[in-house]
Amino acid sequence: MHDLLSRARSEGAPLIDDDKAVFVWEGESAPKLYTDATGWGKDEGITLTQAAPNVWTHSLSFLPDAYMEYAYMNEEGRWRDPFNKRLITNGMGKMNHWFNMPAASHTGLTLRKRGVQRGLVTEHKIDAGFLVVGSQRPVYLYHPPTNEPVPLLVVLDGKDYVTRAKLPVIVDNLIAQKRIRPIALAMPQHGGQARFVEYMCSDSTLGFLVRDVLVLAAEHLHLLPLEENPGTYGILGASMGGLMALYSGLRLPDIFGKVISQSGAFGFDLEGSESVIYDLVRNVELRPIKVWMDVGRYEWLLPMNRKMRGLLDTKGYSPIYREYSGGHNYTSWRDEVVLALEAMFAP
Questions:
Q1: Cα–Cα distances in Å, from 49 out to 29, 31, 59, 313?
Q2: Would strands 32-35 and 120-127 be described as parallel, antiparallel, or unpaired?
Q3: CB atoms within 10 A of CB 207
Q4: What SS3 class is residue 141?
Q5: E-assigned strands of 64-135?
Q6: Contact 287, 248 (CB under 8 A)
Q7: Which three-class secondary structure string do you get for 173-188?
Q8: Which DSSP symbol is given to 294?
Q9: 168 Rama class: left (phi>0) / alpha (psi -120 to 50) / beta
């Protein structure tokens, strides 16, 4: 038996050798390998190399604290890695495999701590009419365990942050540990296949947030009044949601004075013309907003986030900017959002 195959059967896959992750496949042929580090487009798969009869391999180097997701695919679909039982949803009905490099660590704040008071999470449905695709949209509200008025954080892709990032649990634990002030959450879900359109710097989505989501939140949550506390609220989003979060802060800084953009999708242009987000930063007077940006070192959005960070710096926004050793996934965003909340809502 080939040594790599023997090791994969006993150790699992990928094999970790110093800074390398060695992927191993057994079979007469091998599907292509797709990872956070190489992109997920149909033409971006890696062809494994035949190391011996029925043994195929490929090695990739990563930083010591990297967390990565991957999948095997060919024209017939996805194939499970028989040497790796660690699976996680990709949020689109498929499962990815995952692994940690030796120094990787993850937040423990997604676990319920004994004695920690829980905020109240409720689910609502808004009839937003023409402002959103399909007119109706679910919204999750979180009220922290306090009777005092609190600032609001609007969370785009709300259901994903509730179920995949465990955001209400994280907020409960951060409040209990006095690492952030109590905050409320309003978490509207996206429009499914319409998500790209709704989050592409859309004033219609802004109208939905202001006319419907904020009104719903004010009815059910004990919030600091915006009239007396302009810019106290925040907005959080990942990927296209990260783009929409920054757009929201630039357009309505008196409401969304705290912007948390995770892996913001700032690179979509029109026939060589940059997104309107760049025009807003360059040409509109400096807005009174505080900006957090984080992005993975192993994702295709890294260059555009570096570009946006540089532009924001040049214009005087001085964003808090972090690059983490990971890719485009909710495990990474879940870990990073802890730091973002501490920076934006310090006690």
A1: 10, 11, 10, 44
A2: unpaired
A3: 15
A4: strand
A5: 67-74, 77-79, 87-89, 95-100, 120-127
A6: no
A7: HHHHCCCCCCCEEEEE
A8: E
A9: alpha
Q: Looking at residue 252, what DSSP letter applies?
A: -
Q: What is the value of pTM for the model shown?
A: 0.95
Query: Residue 36 and residue 298: Cα distance in Å, rounded?
Result: 6
Nearest residue to 239 via CA among 296, 154, 317: 296
Measured in whole angstroms, the distance separating CA 206 from the mean position of its chain's CA atoms is: 20
One DSSP character per residue, 102-168 reads TT----STTSPPTTPPPPEEEEEEEE-GGGSTTSEEEEEEEE-S-SS-B-EEEESSHHHHHHTS-HH
Report the distance separating Cα 88 and Cα 331, nearest Å.
9
Residue 71 is which amino acid? A
Say which residues have a Cβ less than 8 Å from residue 63's Cβ, sequence separation at least 6: 19, 101, 297, 325
Task: Name all domains of the chain by residue range, CATH numbers in brackets.
Answer: 3-100 (2.60.40.10), 120-344 (3.40.50.1820)
pLDDT in tens, 184-224: 999 999 988 889 999 999 999 999 999 999 999 999 999 99
Q: Which two tokens stand for residue 197?
A: 């359109």
